[in-house]
Amino acid sequence: MGYRVVVVGATGNVGREMLSILAERQFPVDEIAALASRRSLGTEVSFGDTTLKTQDLDTFDFSGWDIALFAIGSDATKKYAPVAAKAGCVVIDNSSLYRYDPDVPLIVPECNADAIHGYSKKNIIANPNCSTAQMVVALKPLHDRANIKRVVVSTYQSVSGSGKEAIDELWDQTKAVYNPTDDYQRKVYPKDIAFNVIPHIDVFLEDGQTKEEWKMVAETKKIVDPAIKVTATCVRVPVFVGHSEAINIEFEDFLDEDEARDILREAPGIMVIDKREDGGYVTPKECVGDFATFISRIRQDPTIDNGINLWCVSDNLRKGAALNAVQIAETLGREVLKKG
Length: 340
What we know:
Number of helices: 9
Mean pLDDT: 96
Helix content: 25-40%
Structural class: alpha/beta
Distance between the termini: 6 Å
Shape: globular
Radius of gyration: 20 Å
């Protein structure tokens, strides 16, 4: 006997990816429903070899459904997630709404799968920010060995993290550079993204951080260890899919770069590709469509006593969003629901 699964926001980039990954990983589904807003009602989406017609989120009855994967914004999630949870359907939410709620577990299964049992307080589990998810997969096994004191991370985040309109904006601006007669309107970003980088993701906070940077700090502390100090600079780059991060890690104890490389090679969810030669590293273009978080450029930091630098790349629509949500569902099924 399998699960009755709902994907909320099934016509968006992440919702479609959730359906694809559920099918790819052969999640034990007895019945699946694809939900969307009324303006997308009846739109067809794929689930493996099956085509689903989207149903109306506003009128859907969650009673009798086991798991709902939410891939909609925080405002809509605030309205519909409690409805699903109250009906007995466990919500796995990809928005930022519940990530910092002490009664809602924030989970990256490779790091803190045991936190799954805290779901019952609200019947909701939070999926982390895409840039945090790939970083903590790399941090956790190293922290277990040498105790991380401080992390300095600079991100290079693709436009798909801002949704389909941002993908279109990069495409239209790029074409307009080569064909000046092409007209485009900047809608998503405050400055051009084509052939440019923008050190601004989400809103600015009073202390000068952006909210994206704050998220990486708060979520790393909740998932890995509240004692870790984190500082982040988050940058949008003209890449369609795939987030990259340059991560500097300072440890309590000395960790040799070769041992760090070995630890990461053995860690779940990680693929180490680290040759000190031309092309001996992974770029975001190469990670698209893959489940793994790729680690390259592992090396000692000679400017501090116990420091390591590394390069971290992942498909943000997968590990950063849809894959992690499905992995949470798998963990929930294996550890708690035990139907599949």
